[in-house]
Structure formats: C-alpha cells, structure tokens
Amino acid sequence: MSWVSLICFGICCAIILSVFRRGADPLSPARVFGFVWSLAVALADLKFSALQYVWTLDGWLLLLTGILAFLVGTFIAYVLNFGKVLVPIQAMREMLRREGVREARLFGLICVSVAVYCLAFLSNYLIRGWLPIFVIGKNVSRVDFNVSGLTLFLYSAAFIVYFTVLYHLQVHGNKARKRILATLSIVVVGSYFLLLQRFQIIMAATICFALLYYASRHIRVKTALPLVLAVTGFFYWMSSLRLSHLASAFLYHMAKMKFAVEYAFLTEPYMYVVMNLENFARSVTRLDYHTYGYFTFDFLTAIAGLKYWIVDYFNLDRTPFLESGYNTYTAFWWFYSDFGVPGLALIPWLLGFGTGLLYYRMRSWPTLKNVTAYGVMVFVMFISFFVFPVMHLWFVYNILALYLILHWTSIPRTGSTQTPVAVARTWESNFEEEGKH
C-alpha cells in the first residue's frame, strides 16, 4: 500500500472518529466532501487494475487543486460564521416538527406529478416501442430511449419520492392518503428501474436521508447503515445491469485486476470509483483546447436546443483520451475542460463557499426549505467523484420543482416565540446544567 493511500485512509478514519464527538454533525460539508474524496484517492492509488497507471505530477496537482479549492471555500464560510450560535441537531428536529405543510395541496401536487410522470413514461414507450431494461446486451443505448420534451418529466421520480417522505414526516394522521402516496411512489420507483437510470434515485435517497437526519429521529446507526448499504447496492446493481452478460462474466479479466480471482466481486465497485479519477488524471495532461462553458452550463444549451448542434458543428468529443470502457471523469474535468486551471480553481471554490454558507444558514435558521437545499448539496458532494450533476437539465428541473412545491405548501412553524438563536442558547444552557449533575 502506498503512502498516499495510507494517508487518505487515515483521513477517512479520522473523519469517522470525529463524528462521535458530542455535537458533531456527520453531514457537515468538510466531512462529507473530505470523506468522499479521501476514500476515492486512497482506492485509486492502490492501483489494483492494470488499466490504471502512475499519475504525472501535473495530474496530481490539478486534481488536488479542485479538491483543495472546494475545501478552502468551506473553510472561509466557516471563518465567516465563527462564533455564531448554531442550533443543535436535537433542537433543529424539534423546530422542524413545528413547521407545517398545506396537506391537501401537497397531496394534490404529488398526485399530479405522478400522473404527469406516468403519461410521459407511457408516451415514451409508445413512441420508442421498447424499454432499456429489455435490450440489455443489444446494440441500443438507454440514451436512445429519450424523446425530446417527454423524457424530462421522467426525472420527476426524484422529487416525487422526496415529497412522499416529507408528507409522511410532517403530516399527522391521514393514513389513507399516506398509503396512496406510498403506493404511487413504489409504482414510480419500480417503473423507473426499467429505464436503468440511477442518478435520480440516488438524489432522492440522499436528500431524504438529510431530511430524516435533520428533521426526525429516524436516522440512527442501526437504520443509517442498512440505508447506505441499500443505496450502494442499488448503485452497483444498476451499473451491472447495463453490462452485457459476456462483459459481466469476464469483467475481472477485462479490468486486468491484480488481486486474486476469489475477490472478483470487488472488481466493479472498485473500478466504478477509481476510473473516474484515472480518466481525469490522464486526460487533463493531454487536453490542448477549452470549451468555454459548454459543459459547465450544459442545461442552458439543452434548453436552447443547441446542445447536440454545437457538438456536431465544432466536432467536440465529450469523452476524449479514454483507454477503457469507463467514460466518466469526476466533476472537476468539466471545469478544467471549459476554463482550464482558473476554472478548476474558481468554480470548486465557489461551490465550497456556497455550500458552506448554505450549511450555516440551515444550522442558524432551520426550515424545510433550507434543509432541502442543503440535502441537494450533500448529493452534489457525494457524487462529485463521478460527475457534476448541476450542469444537467434534469437536475435543474428537479431543483425548480423542489423549490416551487415547497414554496406553495410549506407553512412557517408556530407554537414558539423563540428565535432559533434563543432556542440554541436554551439547549446549550440545558447541556451545561446536565453536565453539572
């Protein structure tokens, strides 16, 4: 094991141990981002596959530039909020419980969203005549299933699941409506599996996890671990389904793994993480042109209908310099591809700074809107080793839906005249009193 892997695994262990400190928040920006990237770099430097290679100094420096820029942004946000009284997690849960929702309106909007989803799903199927899951191993891409103007509504699965969980959490009683929404969500998720898409379900699971952690007592070690394992298993299952049967059988040999064949089942999850970093480190040293915002602002060209026209006109290669079947590069690749080193330093810094400010706003003024917004950023940080979801139209669509539905249905909490800061100070004094006894 290399010294880089040892250091990064040590950082992962330190972050895990820091969570057990009283008052520590396991979902704080530096912990989430630091753990994800320490683990990814540690695994990548193990070099368990012959498809990996020794990175150049330039490759290391550019990757570290993106990672450190994000962490510096979160640190500056921490410094700006240093000394500010934050609401303890337990107090946040009590406060968020008192924030009501317009039950009938939320129920109606979820039902309408499900109806639109089902209509888009059926229309897509009738136009194409097939579903991605039934053409596994054939010379057909799941991207070919897309129909302009219709496929976007299929991505509603993410916010449908989220608002179903929110309804169950915030609405008391109405068991019949809860059963209806649970059934509708199961139908949506079940049908969505047939499309072999995964990001939207991972997004829903992540923001639901954040909501349940900050707004309820449902998240404990015994409940969080099975949920994380289930999400990880789903992520792995979806990726394995998209392989042909022949590729699945010979994946261990195709990846030229260096460990014993008895551990072949680790091949896919290992390669799924490390090849993103490998592709980034290999490609950034070879790229000799920049695309000046085309990839970072992909959703704008998609809305304008210019996305594929620009690719054809300028003969752009979205996946250059690949030497394997893995075609993703990490979130940092798009910033470098568009703007070079300045983009690689500035954009992650802005993301880290914005995420930090959003986190401290949530901790000082807990509302369902703030918790939801930060949950979205937890998803962005969690998936950053793989892709930058913010640039995609489906992500913008989900963000707009989350904001509008929350705006139309949330009710400011009642029953307390205390401000969040006053509540925080009350809890702090209670903790001090408990410590004396």
Major sheet attributes? none
Structural class: mainly alpha
Q: Helix count?
A: 19
Multimer state: single chain
Shape by Cα distribution: globular
Give a quick rundown of the structure.
This protein is mainly alpha-helical and 437 residues long. It contains 19 helices and no strands.
Describe the 3D structure:
This protein is mainly α. The chain has a domain at 3-86 and 258-371 and 384-396. Helices cover 67% and strands 0% of the residues. It contains 19 helices and no strands. It has helices spanning 3-18, 29-44, 57-80, 89-97, 103-128, 151-154, 157-170, 175-193, 199-215, 221-241, 245-249, 251-254, 267-284, 298-304, 307-314, 331-364, 368-382, 393-409, 420-436. α7 packs antiparallel against α8. The chain is globular and about 60 Å long. It starts with a helix and ends with a helix. The model is unreliable at 242-249 and 431-437 (pLDDT under 50).
Tag the structure with descriptive keywords:
single chain; 437 residues; mainly alpha; 0% strand; globular; disordered C terminus
